[in-house]
Design a protein that fits this description.
Blueprint lengths: L5 E7 L3 H14 L4 E3 L8 E6 L4 H23 L5 E5 H7 L2 H5 L5 E3 L7 H10 L3 E3 L7 H4 L5 H6 L3 E5 L1 E2 L10 H4 L4 E2 L2 H13 L4 E5 L7 E3 L5 E3 H9 L6 E5 L14 H8 L6 E3 L7 H6 L6 H14 L4 E8 L6 H14 L3 E6 L17 H24 L5 E9 L5 E5 L5 E5 L8 E10 L2 E6 H11 L1
Parallel strand pairs: 1-2, 1-3, 3-4, 4-5, 5-6, 7-10, 10-13, 14-15, 15-16, 19-21
Antiparallel strand pairs: 8-9, 11-12, 17-18, 17-20, 18-19, 20-21
Helix pairs in contact: 10-11, 14-15
The chain binds 5'-deoxyadenosine and iron/sulfur cluster (SF4).
Length: 465
């Protein structure tokens, strides 16, 4: 490598794992001479980190590639080269097809090959159009360099760490088993080393990531097989780490590998584990759950939620829903609405079913018309929004711990998160990023909460007598 530094801009779509991967790609390119650019316009190398989960997400790549090509033309007029990389799940699913559909792509690289980025770029320099969508024998995690302390610091006090990747569940609608491959878990020692490095750079909260994170079964530091619950306990014990979260979970794995409900117990016993559970259910109809190959019923789901609430009564629930799955009748959809009413979610994501090539559901009859999907989605989202607003309103008047994360929208304000993942805005005062402060929630504003520090409140009371 020449001594000359270049810049890279990674634009990420889709899930939190992609956001984590984007950082790791930037880290992988740092030793090869790339600094992170603040904007795509300034970058010598543009990486699109793509999502394949729904058709709309996947198609976005091609419109974005059009824009990047325009950018490349403008930069060329100024004598600057621009490399274009397509990474992520569309790269994995479509591979060389991307080169055929879109001109100008230098490299297509799947999620398991990010550690090879420097050498792949080198290859692409002499022969643009390199494709690497292998599932290599070696783990990318062993080979990916760690971020520098400065980089980690710049990324904030809350960090993601992938602990598990891939999926063996094969829900009939889903591309993940094909794009991210079979389920694998990272060894606990590697995860804990990463968490320690993060903590030393000032990180206070880690979110453990996996497509099926509660199916985690990695090699423990004692040589045994560790469950997610065991891993959470070790992560929570890392000096500096005040908060631990995990996402995304499958209902089938909540009981744990030994059926001992250890993860649920962790919600009761580990104070650092935040009282929030994202547990996708997808549908409230047993018929549709069976057609989706979810392998659980609506009652199974309700019983799991009950157990978690028994262990941690203030836990906030969140979920994912799909409306308009093939064969979904009005009655099936009503079952979903009723389940949402019964559970009461703090937040939830909902999507129209999107047919994905190669998945079993794509072959199913009784497709649901777009207009019906639109109607059902609107009804479900209205209900979810109401529950979200109710949940936030119920926090008003209470005092909660807020992890201060970043500058607020208004001057003098900072913004942070409650234990229940609610965004809270407050006057900064002497609070620094990474502090956990006691905040009285005074009101709600749109999608966040407003609050005042208890210390500031006490001071004002003293002043006014
Ligand atoms: N169509 C619509 N939504 C989907 N999801 C996954 N696959 C599809 C699909 N084919 C949703 C599920 C999943 C979330 C990440 O995306 O709700 O939990
Ligand atoms: Fe999208 Fe799934 Fe890939 Fe995440 S893992 S980017 S949700 S397809």
């Amino acid at each position: 490598m020449s001594g000359e530094r270049k810049t890279v801009f990674v634009k990420s779509y889709g899930c939190q794992m992609n956001a984590y991967d984007a950082q790791r790609m930037a880290d992988a390119l740092a030793p090869a001479g790339y600094d992170e650019a603040a904007a795509m316009e300034d970058a010598d190398l543009v990486v699109l980190n793509t999502c394949h989960i729904r058709e709309k997400a996947a198609e976005k790549v091609y419109s974005e590639l059009g824009r990047v090509r325009e950018l490349r033309k403008e930069r060329a007029l100024r004598g600057l080269d621009t490399g274009i990389v397509v990474a992520g799940c569309v790269a994995q699913a479509e591979g060389a097809e991307i080169l055929r559909r879109a001109r100008g792509v230098d490299l297509v690289v799947g999620p398991q090959s990010y550690h090879r980025l420097p050498e792949l770029l080198e290859q692409a320099r002499s022969r643009p159009g390199v494709v690497d969508t292998d599932f290599p024998a070696e783990s990318k995690f062993d080979a990916l360099p760690a971020a520098s302390r400065d980089r980690t610091r710049a990324r904030g006090v809350s960090a993601f760490v992938t602990v598990q990747e891939g999926c063996d569940k094969f829900c009939t609608f889903c591309v993940v088993p094909y794009t991210r491959g079979a389920e694998t878990s990272r060894p606990a020692s590697a995860i804990l080393a990463e968490v320690r490095r993060l903590a030393e750079a000032g990180v206070r909260e880690v979110t453990l990531l996996g497509q099926n994170v509660n199916a985690y079964h990695g090699e423990g530091t004692d040589g045994g097989d560790w469950s997610l619950a065991r891993l959470i306990r070790a992560v929570a014990a890392t000096p500096g780490i005040a908060r631990v979260r995990y996402t995304t979970s499958h209902p089938l794995d909540m009981a744990g590998p030994n059926g001992d409900w250890e993860l649920v117990a962790a919600h009761r016993d580990v104070p650092e584990l935040m009282p929030f559970l994202h547990l996708p259910v997808q549908s409230g109809s047993d018929r549709i759950l069976a057609a989706m190959n979810r392998r659980h019923t609506r009652d199974d789901y309700r019983r799991i939620v009950e157990r978690v609430r028994e262990a941690r009564p203030d836990v906030a629930l969140s979920s994912d829903f799909i409306v308009g799955f093939p064969g979904e009748s009005d009655g099936d959809f009503d079952d979903t609405m009723r389940l949402v009413e019964e559970i009461g979610f703090a937040s939830a994501y909902s999507f129209k079913y999107s047919e994905r090539p190669g998945t079993p559901a794509a072959e199913m009859d009784a497709k649901i018309p777009e207009a019906v999907k639109t109607e059902r989605l609107a009804a479900l989202q209205a209900l979810i929004e109401r529950q979200f607003q109710d949940f936030n309103a119920a926090t008003v008047g209470r005092t909660v711990d807020v992890l201060v994360e970043k500058p607020g929208r208004h001057p003098g304000q900072v913004s942070g998160k409650s234990p229940w993942l609610q965004a809270v805005a407050l006057e900064a005062g002497d609070a620094r990023f990474g502090d956990i402060v006691s905040v009285r929630i005074t009101g709600t504003g749109g999608h966040s909460l407003l609050g005042e520090r208890e210390a500031a409140l006490r001071e004002r009371r003293a002043l006014t007598g």
